[in-house]
Amino acid sequence: MSEFIMPPGYRFEPTDEELIRFYFSEKALGQPLPRSSIVEKELYGDNANPWDVFSDTDPLKTETIFDKNETKSIKKTIFVLTKLSKISPKRISRKVGCGLWDGQTGAITINDSQGMIIGSKKMLTFKTKGDSNVMKIHGHWIMHEYSLDGVSLINGLKFINDYVICRITRSWKGKDLQVLENRKRSRTISYDHSNREDNKKARMMLVQESISHNGGQDFDLLDQIDDLSPSMIEDCMKWLSDELN
C-alpha cells in the first residue's frame, strides 16, 4: 500500500461539535467515514502499542513547531474510530501492550449551537510500565476521546456506546526529538562490504556525537552495531572504550 498523501491545502481540523454532528453521528446512522480523514483501528489489546498501530500509510497530519525559546518539536495527529474494550457495561479496560491509556480528565460535555448536549470528551495520555526510555524513542502520546451523548442517542443508537472517535497526537521535543533524529540518521547508513571503512567511520561519528552531547544517554548503541560483522563490532567497542577512558 502506498503512503497516503493529503491533497494540497487540505486540513482536517473539525471542532468538537463538527466531529460529533457531521462524522460520528453520521457513522452511527450507517454512513461511511471519510477514509482520508478518519481511520478505524483497534487501540486496545496486547498488541496495540500506539507506535505499532499506526504507519506512514495512515492520514497523519505532521507539524513542526518552535516555541519562544526556539526549541523544536514535531507533532503528528490522527483521528481514529475504535471499539472500547469493556470489562462490564460500565467498566473499560485501557491496557495495551507495554502500558495503558491513563485518564487525565473526566467527561466534558459537548454542546451544539443550540445548547443541546450532543457528546462528551475525555483526555488520556499513554504511560508505559517500566522502561522510561521507551517514550524517548516513541514519543509522547495524548488522546482526546469523543463519545455520543444526549440528543445524539435519541434515535435508538445505544450500540454506538461501544465506540469512540479519538484524536491522537504523538509528539517529540528537545532531547527526545534528538533521539528520534539520531535513529533516523543511523538507519540511512548502508553497510556494504566495498565501503566498509567509510560505513564504520560514519556510524562511529554518530556514537561520538552523542557521547560529546550528553554521555550517550540519548543514543541506542546496540541499534548502531547490531548489523555489523564480529570484527567491526570489536573495532567499534574498542574505539568506544578508548573514548570513555
Provide the descriptors you would attach to this structure in a database record.
two-stranded antiparallel ribbon; 7 helices; NAC domain-containing protein 19; NAC_dom_sf; nine-stranded mixed beta sheet; alpha+beta; NAC-dom
SS summary, helix count: 7
Span between termini: 49 Å
Radius of gyration: 23 Å
Amount of helix: 25-40%
Give the DSSP E fraction (strand runs of 2 or more residues).
Answer: 25-35%
Secondary structure blueprint with pairings:
Elements: H1 16-28, E1 38-40, H2 50-53, E2 61-66, E3 72-83, E4 86-88, E5 91-92, E6 95-96, E7 99-103, E8 108-111, E9 117-128, H3 133-138, E10 140-148, E11 163-173, H4 175-187, H5 196-214, H6 221-225, H7 230-244
Parallel strand pairs: 1-3
Antiparallel strand pairs: 2-3, 3-11, 4-5, 6-7, 7-9, 8-9, 9-10, 10-11
GO molecular function: DNA binding
Organism: Forsythia ovata
Domain NAC: 6-171
General description of the model:
This is NAC domain-containing protein 19. One of its GO terms (molecular function) is DNA binding. The protein is α+β, with helices and mostly antiparallel strands and 245 residues long. 31% of the residues lie in helices and 28% in strands. It is built from seven helices and eleven strands. It has helices spanning 16-28, 50-53, 133-138, 175-187, 196-214, 221-225, 230-244, and strands at residues 38-40, 61-66, 72-83, 86-88, 91-92, 95-96, 99-103, 108-111, 117-128, 140-148, 163-173. The strands form two sheets. Strands 1, 2, 3, 6, 7, 8, 9, 10 and 11 form a nine-stranded mixed beta sheet that branches. A two-stranded antiparallel ribbon has the order 4-5. Strand 8 and strand 9 form a beta hairpin. Helix 5 (196-214) packs parallel to helix 7. 20% of the residues are buried. Residues 189-194 and 211-227 have low confidence and may be disordered.
